[in-house]
């Protein structure tokens, strides 16, 4: 966190109801924005666990005003602790990408490309920033390249001639920076920064990730971390699980969100938080008890997770939950978290 952001959070916490040695007390009408700012400053409530779950909305809610209204409706219905905007302005398939050298021909998408989603950002900032911190999802250049060529084609090109593909990643990185800066100018509070590529056996040569994908990842991530006070590093296992998180341990982000299930073992929440040296968000398999369990089973699992987690913990899923998930199921899980803590 940069000095300005840290001082802002420190001043906010100092002006709250805390005193040395006193029990945490939260004003009855404290906004979720202020509550999360206090949490980020290390002022956790022993009787309250923040929580958030994310999903993709229908095709009619991908961008513009419709997306803004849907995100706000979902935020208020589920009572989650911050707004996270889905990134739906993805690249279309570029059929000319037939060989590695073709990546140099990729067109740079400028701010007008992102305008439909930036409209969503502006409307959510205007409509809900007073009550909530607002995050934008950020797909890595590698993930965007997969949208352009399909993942199998991208991986094949990287294996054949990574230096040629590097030019395409640089173009996508430049475009990503345009989007990031526009979001910050619009008033976004931070980013949910996704990375892929270091999964187990993703490449025959793991050095491809280290030399080509990671440097592209870090360009926008470092700028975001220097300018925003609330960023979540999401190590995405949608494609495949991880043998370890060594390759991304030093990535920026004030919080880490990743799966506890590795190829050879399961990790505890405390082990992940200790390894990344930052608070952890997640713990619930989006396809497990959360999706299939009874309300009683969901409640039992949440209590188990909270009791096993460090004090600074956000309940959530390892990745997005199914788009057709009943919002009442999500609201129930969040309400359970809000009613329990380490002292409960």
N/C terminus separation? 31 Å
What series of H and E elements makes up the topology?
Answer: HHHEHEHHHEHEEHEHHEH
Which second-level CATH architecture applies? Alpha-Beta Barrel
Strand content: 5-15%
Tally of helical segments: 12
Query: Stretches where pLDDT falls below 50 for ≥5 residues?
Result: 3-27
Helix content: 40-55%
Q: How many domains would you count in the coordinates?
A: 1
Spatial order of strands in the largest sheet:
1-2-3-4-5-6-7
**What is the SS-derived class?**
alpha/beta
**What is the third-level CATH name, the topology?**
TIM Barrel
Q: What's the shape?
A: globular
**Taking all residues together, what is the mean pLDDT?**
92
- Gyration radius (Cα, Å) is 20 Å
Q: Major beta sheet, specifics? A: 7 strands, parallel
Number of DSSP E strands: 7
In CATH, what is the class? Alpha Beta
What does the model show?
This protein is an alpha/beta fold. It has one domain: TIM Barrel (Alpha-Beta Barrel). It has 12 helices and 7 strands. The protein has helices at 3-14, 32-40, 64-78, 115-128, 141-149, 151-160, 162-186, 207-227, 269-276, 289-292, 295-308, 327-338, and strands spanning 83-85, 134-138, 190-195, 232-235, 255-258, 280-284, 313-317. Strand 3 (190-195), helix 8 and strand 4 (232-235) form a beta-alpha-beta unit. The longest helix has 25 residues, at 162-186. The chain is globular.
Summarize the structure.
The chain is α/β, with parallel strands linked by helices and 344 residues long. The chain is built from twelve helices and seven strands. Helix content is 44%, strand content 9%.
